[in-house]
Amino acid sequence: MIPVRCWRQIVLYTCVVVLLTVLSRVAAAQDAPGSAASPTDNGYAISLDQYNRYGKWRLRGVDGRGGLVFGVRQDERIRDLRLDLTYRHSPALLDDLSHLNVLLNGEVVESIPLVGDDSASAKEVQVVLPIDGLQDYNYLQLQAISHYTMECEDPLHSSLWVDIDPRSRLLFSVVPQILPDELGLLPLPFFDERDVRPVELAFLLDRPTNARLEAAGILASWLGSLASYRGTHFTAVTDGLPQSGNAVVILGADQNIPGLSLPAAQGPTVAMRPNPNDPGGKLLIVQGRNDEEIRQAATALVLGAPTLSGDRAVVQPPLVQPRLPYDAPNWLPTHRPVALGELLPEGELTAAGFEPQPITVGLRLPPDLSDWRVKTIPLDLRYRHSAAHQSDGTLEVMVNQQRVRRFDLGAQDETVRRLVQRDDSLVRRTVPVPLSLLGSQAGLQFQFLYPPPAQSECRGALIDTHRSAIDPSSTIDLSGLPHHIAMPDLAAFGTAGFPFTRMADLSETVVVLTPHATQYELSAFLNLMGRMGQSTGYPATGVTVVQENEVPLDKDALLIESGERSELLNRWAHYMPAPRQRAALTSDRDSFAGWIASFSDWVSRNTRRSGTGVSFTAPAQGAYLAGFESPESKRRSVVVVAGADGPSLLNAVHLLSFDEQQRSRLQGGLAVVQDGRIQSLSDAKTYSIGNLGPFQALAWFLSLNPFLLYVLYLFASIVVAVVLYLSLRARAQMRLHTNEPDSTKSNELN
Amino acid sequence: MRISFSYRRVMRLFFGHCLMVVLMMGTAVGQIPDSETPDPSTTPTEPMNGALTSSMNRGMQHTNSAQFSSRHQYTLEDLGARYPFNLRGIEGSDSVSFSVRADEVVVGANLDLTYSYSPALLADLSHINVLVNDVVVASLPVPREEAGKSIQRSLELPVHLITEFNQLRMQLIGHYTLECEDPLHSSLWANVSNQSRLMLDVRHLPLADDLALLPQPFFDRRDARRLTLPMVFVNDRGAATLESAGMVASWFGAMAGYRGAEFPVYWDGDYPLQGNAVVLSVGAAAAQPTLSGPTLSITANPNDPRGKLLWIRGRDAQELKQAARALVTNSAVLTGQTAVISRLEELSPRRPYDAPRWVPTDRPVTFGELVPQEEDLDSMGYHGAPVRLDLRVPPDLFGWREKPVPVDLRFRYTPQQGHANSALLISGNQQFLKSFPLPSVDQIKDDSWLKGLRDSEMLPVRERMQIPLHRLLGRSELEFRFMYEYIKEGQCRDMIIDNVGGRIDPDSTIDLTRYAHFMPMPNLRAFDESGFPYTRLADLSQTGVVFASAPAAEDISTYLTLMGRFGDSTGYPATHVSVYFGASGLQANDKDLIVIASGDQGWLQDWAPYMPAALAGDSKRFGTSDIVFLSGWRSTPDPREAQQPVRTELRYVSAGHTAIFAGFESPLTAGRSVVLISSSDPSGQRLAVDALLNKAQFGEDRLQGSLAVVRDDRIQPLVAEYTYTVGQLGPWRSIQWKLAQIWPAGIPGWLPWLVAAVVLLLAWAIVRRLRRKPREA
């Protein structure tokens, strides 16, 4: 054994060597032409509403506050940080006493006097924030000290207001911080949760094969699931590494990258290396001796990222248990009641103050939960509040800002309820939440409101003793709802990636690309994969990528293409939903003509409703999305995302990812995307997927085919009539004839 | 003792203030109180003159190079100010405490303040006071020109005010008008950064080599920093020696409490270059007196005369263990430089869940038992610190489908005049639980009984409330905050008299008796918070720690840190922990095991099928589950509902280092637990120690689930799977528990009908059978 002191020397020596290497790298970074550019090149601005969309930016009262939390990326060092503030304030404020404080982590950085000369015109000011005490996460607070009189004052007087423009910005000027090549940092630096901006990343895909595209898709969906609300902005590149920043490199067995010395793969390998073009950037390299190994490396990376360490790991093919439908980590489980405490930490289920921000629980549900028979789901709500007497406040339960129920706090029935339940410090109620309101993604909000503390001008001071909480043992119960949805439903595709995300690993999904997919098509593919990951929270480890000449079998297919229509799509074109006319006809199904139509549809089911009439011609500009039942296999879906050219395809995908308003316009089976707008062209439902159970399925079938229902009624009434007739006749015969044989029988028995 | 005292004075004369080498000539001998008459075997040990001279020479060298003073630097945040001071109103103040170690004396104190104040303050009237122990040492002016900016200023604090325990207070005297004033006007504010620095220049006072000072200087409660105490193994690393070390570590861990304690390990008498250390030695040791039995002694550190070595010695390993046990159970009676232990009472075995720091569950517990002093249950003034109760509840109390914990709460408060919104707010682990209004005199409708109350008296109230059990399990804190509203009388009549207060009655009780001890396992969270299931018996008499046959120093260090944590949990030293080596140790019968391994782990081969993860050098195996894709994993009332079983098995080869914590059922004995703490190489054990001490780099991350991996800045649970249970449920609850596994959403509606139908059918069949029998007969 080597003596301890000797070890110490070795460790010291290693430290010195490591330090020198790091220093030389830093020096190299500074010498590199790329980083010699002016500091403004490494700057960016983030507006306040990007941090806190529903933030309270109207500061009211003698001491109004609003704030946000911002993070500092791990691979950057901030050189300069400013707050570019735009605000308006009430003209009634007293000059001497009123001011606006900017606080960083609780310390006052600057007090801006609120001088009330020229009324409510917008004012701009730039505040330099100190960068010394910055932590990973920082709290920036704005506090308005406002006063309108030197005499007795109402602390909540309506003339006391300061409005902060939510488009005020934080201006960052940064220098890159060089991180070690350490897989233990993953997902850093490719994704940093401290950054609220979309994840931007290049994927180097040089002459990709299907398996390598699958590997890229797996990584894209993984990063998408991490990015969550931020969204992704992936770019596929085919010719060489990006000039700066991070990149994912899917490296074929025979491929090599100039400037990058990598040992030959000895199996599925994951490695991290600096970007030769930009020492501040990192490359995440996935390689293998063959395509299958590359895919395995990608799978191992995404499933085991938190366990990896070192700068390079050679993995064995991971053993993965198959997934079950609807088991995506982001989706609410549907086999048991789910406690709200599982969805939010306890600290976020409490609120302080008489008018606190609503407590918001984000929910993602499988989009195909059927509300056809059961309209509501039970929310078993338990809450605590500090209302002392009757109607001393309210609790509103809202879904996506729409009120579902409203309770008076301290109401009399509460007292009765408390007597009969086990814990009298909380109130327990059941709230039926309409399933249709929840959709596939919803915010469940709880707004506590108490009347402001009794104030008169010269009496009372604000002391806020109000506290409220939703108990984490409150549950929401989705169990027992059947999975059944009428298709095509592009809305479900747009918000949740459904039906592909039914299996969270996309193991029943095939992505069809053109044989020589362009950079745009590949980027669209990566971003759509990112979107799937965002929905499920799970990487698409089971996705299959094929070229269009290989017909997908028994899988849901996602077609991505641009430019001239491919052969496959031409073949499938007449299965696509037809715009409008058809939709108009099916909507008045209740009229006689509608019955006839639906009957004829039912009879001629094989021909497909949409295939009969007008076929859809793709627009000359922009892009379109279409959903229909797979012509190859029943109850399987096809979604086509196609653009007139590459850029419009990619624009359509970005619109889908980032523009919530336009996304909500995506409906039905056919939609066009033009000039940044989505227009839905068809809302016909031509098939359905899922299983309602035998009785409900029959009812569903009949509801779709009311004509048949009448036939069935007729048939049933005939049957009943026949049965009645027969039984009555039998009775009549019994009465007419004497009962002798029967009575003898009964005597014998006795 | 007398001789030694005069000797000390002589030495002081010779060497001035800077140096004092104290030699206790073996005059004092440790006695254990149970032995009424001194045992003849406790003979004084012989002084070793050679050792004395050498240590004195070293000391003199240090004196010459004037190395005996140093500077401590604390931010106010280090001293406990979690947020910047926000001073409000005409007389707002806030404070932090700091203390000075017994072996240090302050020779200089400086305060670097960063602060800002309101532009509305009148400069001629307003100022910010700095107070040390309630004496104003400086008044900072607040000129209008510098208002609203961040200002930095350095102050010198008078040294003579600084004592052992000190308070540093900042006070704003603020006025915004010469006329009538609102004392709580929102424009009266000053803000002091909690990054302001307090710098203390200290000179070290040499302490005597006296066991009577224990635990000083090895642990000083005035020191709020983490305790780092090296353990030196001189010539033996056997099981008994390690057990002794564990005992000592848990003793120090219990004292260190919230500070945390870590124990770097030095082999072969290689003393740390600086500071104090504990030395364990079997048989003769170089430069040490010969032994006549289990011995404890204190000498200077040969590498650093300021540092002390606490020697724990024995002629054989058993004697060493006796010495250690004497130290941890009877340190208060030890005196002198050396103590030879003559007789030691056998400790009576502990009963389950009887750890001194755990809340008893066999009877209702009064609040008075839960606080050190009854005054801690008082909260005086508008800004009084809330009453806090620290609770350690056995983590295996099972609250599933049980009623919440009943609390019989009695408190007193000052009824105010006029109309007030005052309230008593109660929270558990910083989360709101319940509030009780504190009605003012006018608000109490029936005031007939108020009349008997004198002006200054507080009104007694008795309330019943419930607390969900899960808020209390493990470590928890109950907070009672009396919030009084300021009563304003109108303009120019505002005078705030701080005469309000509240008191939680020490007779209030909390009752945990109704719950069964039962827990689905493994549960790393309970292991991390409370050391469960090992601390179920506070002396760890059912715990075995298994190392490789030749463990690395880092492995031992992890073990000692863990023992320190266990001691902190129970408040009782680990007097009966057992240590084993190698694969044979895995056969230890009927023990809950902790396996600590690093580097080559071939000896764990037999257990590989039971382990959810394995590390051996560069090759690694992990099971992972969906838990890594969840934004936060939290347990549910029925823990099985949120479990995340292994879905992926991953094997790879890489050079990086990580540490894992894995819990699983003992393959030997059903119902016994194993926790594996493993790292790919010995240096990776550093991460395990960091995780055990919940160091700052991990933020909110804690060990939880059944398998967790520790990386440089993150503790990531990988799997949360329950494979076995410990404890017993009542018969009825146990049936419910089994049924809930089949129907997590509750028993389906048709089941009672089915059962009824089956019962009817059976009854009918039996009746038929009974009827038929007599006919046949």
Describe the structure.
The complex is a heterodimer of chains A (750) and B (777). Chain A has 750 residues and is α+β, with helices and mostly antiparallel strands. Chain A contains 18 helices and 36 strands. Chain A starts with a helix and ends with a helix. With 777 residues, chain B is α+β, with helices and mostly antiparallel strands. Chain B is built from twelve helices and 41 strands. In chain B, the strands form nine sheets. Chain B has a seven-stranded mixed sheet with strand order 32-31-33-38-37-39-40. In chain B, strands 1, 2, 4, 7, 9 and 10 form a six-stranded antiparallel sheet that branches. In chain B, strands 14-12-15-17-16-18 form a six-stranded mixed sheet. In chain B, helix 8 packs parallel to helix 10. Mean pLDDT of chain B is 84; it is low at 1-67. Chains A and B meet through strand 5, strand 6, helix 4, strand 16 and strand 17 of A and strand 24, strand 25, strand 26, strand 35 and strand 36 of B.
Count of helix runs of chain A: 18
Radius of gyration of chain B, taken over Cα atoms and rounded to an integer in Å: 31 Å
Structural class of chain B, please?
alpha+beta
Average pLDDT of chain A: 83
Topology diagram in text:
The complex is a heterodimer of chains A (750) and B (777).
Chain A (H helix, E strand, L loop, with lengths): L3 H28 L11 E5 H4 L6 E3 L2 E9 L4 E14 L9 E6 L2 E7 L9 E7 L7 E9 L15 E4 L4 E8 L22 E7 L4 H18 L4 E6 L9 E5 L17 E7 L2 E10 L3 H14 L7 E4 L3 E2 L16 E3 H4 L6 E3 L6 E6 L11 E10 L8 E6 L2 E7 L3 H9 L6 E8 H4 L2 E9 L17 E4 L4 E3 L5 E5 L2 H7 L12 E5 L5 H18 L7 E4 L8 E7 L4 H6 L8 H7 L4 H12 L5 H4 L10 E7 L7 E7 L2 H13 L1 H4 L6 E5 L2 E6 L4 E5 L2 H11 L1 H31 L3 H10 L1
Chain B lengths: L1 H14 L33 H16 L4 E7 L9 E4 L2 E9 L4 E14 L9 E6 L2 E7 L9 E7 L7 E9 L15 E4 L4 E8 L22 E2 L2 E3 L5 H18 L4 E2 L2 E3 L9 E6 L12 E7 L2 E11 L2 H14 L7 E3 L24 E2 H4 L7 E3 L6 E7 L3 E2 L6 E9 L9 E6 L2 E7 L21 E9 L1 H4 L1 E10 L17 E4 L4 E2 L5 E6 L2 H7 L12 E5 L5 H18 L7 E4 H4 L6 E7 L14 E4 L2 E6 L23 E7 L4 E7 L7 E7 L5 H8 L14 E5 L2 E6 L4 E4 L3 H12 L7 H27 L1
